[in-house]
Amino acid sequence: MADTGWLSPSTEASVTDAPHGSASVSFSTGNAGSSNDTYDYANAPPMPSESHGLKCTTFGASVPGGATINGIEVKVECKGAGAFKYLRIVKGGSISTDASNDNSTATTGSDVVYDFGGAADLWGETWTDTDINASTFGVSVGFDIAVFGSIQVDHVQIKVHYTSGDNSSSSSSDSSESSSSSLNSSSSSSQSSSSSSSQSSASSQSSSSSQSDNSSSSSSSSSQSVVDIQTVRDTFRDAIVFFEGTDSSPVDLVDASSLSSADVEPRLTITQLIWNISGSGTLKLSWDGTPDKVSMTLNGGGKFTFNGFTIPNDASSPTGDLLVSKENFGSGDTYEIVIHLRKVSGYVQS
């Protein structure tokens, strides 16, 4: 069995063709043709987002006429705060519906080369040499991106394995190459399924691609079906927290003692809110106290920026914590909140 060797694309596009129809964050293009630390990138706003498909074609393959196509391998070199979502072959310019190589492997803050497909993986399609040699042959990759995150793609490559029409057994590759279609990372570093990035302001749009080492993520210890809580920013002055959940209430959205200077719990105030509710339910934000004090009631989606003032913690006997509860949520409804908090010095937990 022979192969084409590793090929690189000369045509790239940021697309919303299926399965990328719900994507909201576009890719820059033109830099995935070589491994040189110059990137195609997609930056998320302050909400978890899905990238467009990075569609790469014109690989310049030259498979002999009459050859039998045995399998296709793909390599994607990338980094960032997020995870793979779609990895689809492109045939005749159309993105395949075959989802056998879709996955949710998390990316990291350093370049890693991820392998897909294999020497016997046809990606759910039938192939001729003409299909492979066409400029419309390629691959499309899409990602889920963390709040304030950035995905950066350095290099995309394809190798096609085939048997020549004369049954030649010559090969330009090691015959021990795996025929597995499973994803294998070429890096020995541990892959994390939790990632975050830092942002110096609460602006709703971020072009930063820097990753933060000081962010933290935790699951709620309650019995509620909470998906994720991430502290995206935590300085002596302010904090940004992302919360994603499904059920139920009340849940500790912000544990003030978990922020910096935990020995003196700061009195937090709200300076900005960005939220999205998938159904018709209502969210209530309350300052924890005796009793709790409701500070905001939210529905639908939107953004509040409190220029010149904040929403203070005016609960009686406050703990400093901020709670979130829900009302009238249907089965499967979800919500996401990004909250920017200011720390007011001089408050000690009572």
In angstroms, what separates the terminal alpha carbons? 74 Å
Mean pLDDT metric? 77
Sum up the overall morphology in one term: elongated
Topology as a string of helices (H) and strands (E): EEEEEEEEEHEEEEEEEEEEEEE
- Computed structural class: mainly beta
Radius of gyration: 24 Å
Strand residues, percent? 35-45%
How would you summarize what this structure contains?
The protein is an all-beta fold and about 350 residues long.
Topology:
Layout: E1 2-3, E2 11-15, E3 40-43, E4 49-50, E5 53-57, E6 68-80, E7 82-91, E8 94-95, E9 112-118, H1 129-133, E10 138-145, E11 150-163, E12 184-185, E13 216-218, E14 226-234, E15 238-245, E16 251-254, E17 267-277, E18 282-287, E19 293-299, E20 301-305, E21 322-327, E22 335-344
Antiparallel strand pairs: 1-11, 2-5, 3-11, 4-10, 5-10, 6-9, 6-11, 7-8, 7-10, 9-12, 13-14, 14-15, 15-22, 16-21, 17-20, 17-22, 18-19, 18-21
Throw out a few tags for this protein.
1 helix, six-stranded antiparallel β-sheet, mainly beta, 350 residues
Explain this structure to me?
By secondary structure, the chain is mostly beta strands. The chain is built from one helix and 22 strands. The strands form four sheets. Strands 1, 3, 6, 9, 11 and 12 form a six-stranded antiparallel sheet that branches. Strands 2, 4, 5, 7, 8 and 10 form a six-stranded antiparallel sheet that branches. Strands 13-14-15-22-17-20 form a six-stranded antiparallel sheet, with no helix packed on it. Strand 7 and strand 8 form a beta hairpin. The longest helix has 5 residues, at 129-133. It starts with a strand and ends in a 6-residue tail after the last strand. Mean pLDDT is 77; it is low at 167-227 and 346-350.
